[in-house]
Write a structure and sequence with these properties.
Largest sheet: 6 strands, parallel
Order of helices and strands: EHEHHEHEHEHEHEHE
Oligomer: single chain
Bound molecules: nicotinamide-adenine-dinucleotide
Shape: globular
Strand content: 15-25%
Number of strands: 8
Strand order of the largest sheet: 3-2-1-4-5-6
Number of helices: 8
């Protein structure tokens, strides 16, 4: 029997979050999905899939016992030490990314030595360092941070998750980077480990 896979949390259940959740559930992890959109969480609990992606509905159905949906971040924090952040970062009028949803997640997460944010949302270079400064200012310096940029394309997102060209993991050389690599290992994709800014 294969060893138990690490449980994870996924914050934001849009294209990236839902595909990431379904993909890691398929690889054997229990996945706690959190979204502020209560109607979306209700639909997911009923087994409805709010977006169309080839293969996604089947993947979610097949792994329904491993997938948990909530509007409460505490549910993910209780069960998982790694929280994959997949909230939206839409462009503003000036063309910069609007990071308000990312900052809302950072503010909501309590101080912990045992948790790490794994950034899937597209954020500008330098965001990792500035978020780690914010952790420090908010007395949460013990939180881990890993950059794990997402390369999936809509319409082939499930396929892209299961057969990536490469997986890039940027971290400070602490436990969380190792743990993220471990999660992706069964995909047998080239794994590129680097620092946060390079990722
Ligand atoms: N869609 C793509 O093809 C794609 C590909 C690569 C990278 N990305 C990046 O991934 C990120 C997510 O993109 P997406 O297309 O999945 O977005 P999306 O808009 O489909 O989903 C974002 C989800 O986050 C939820 N959310 C917002 N604030 C939240 C909060 N504070 N707590 C919990 N949930 C919250 C929203 O309700 C929504 O369900 C973006 O940064 C995007 O640029 C997207």
């Amino acid at each position: 029997m294969s060893p138990a896979r690490e449980p994870i949390g996924v914050i934001g259940t849009g294209y990236v979050g839902l595909v990431t959740a379904a993909g890691f559930a398929e690889l054997g992890s229990e996945v706690w999905c959190v979204d502020i959109d209560a109607a979306k969480i209700e639909r997911l609990r009923r087994g409805e899939v709010p977006i169309y992606e080839p293969g996604l509905e089947q993947l979610l159905q097949r792994n329904t016992a491993r997938l948990h949906y909530s509007t409460d971040l505490a549910d993910a924090l209780e069960h998982a030490r790694m929280l994959f952040v997949a909230v939206g970062t839409p462009p503003t009028h000036s063309g910069d990314a609007d990071l308000s949803a990312v900052h809302a997640v950072v503010s909501a997460i309590p101080a912990s030595e045992d948790h790490a944010l794994v950034m899937k949302s597209t954020v500008p270079c330098g965001t990792g360092a500035s978020l780690q400064r914010v952790f420090g200012e908010q007395g949460k310096g013990g939180l881990g941070y890993v950059s794990c940029p997402e390369f999936l394309k809509e319409a082939s997102a499930v396929e892209d998750f299961l057969h990536p060209d490469r997986v890039v993991v940027g971290d400070n050389g602490e436990w969380a980077g190792e743990a993220v690599l471990e999660l992706y290992a069964p995909l047998n994709a080239p794994l590129v480990r680097t620092d946060i800014a390079s990722a």
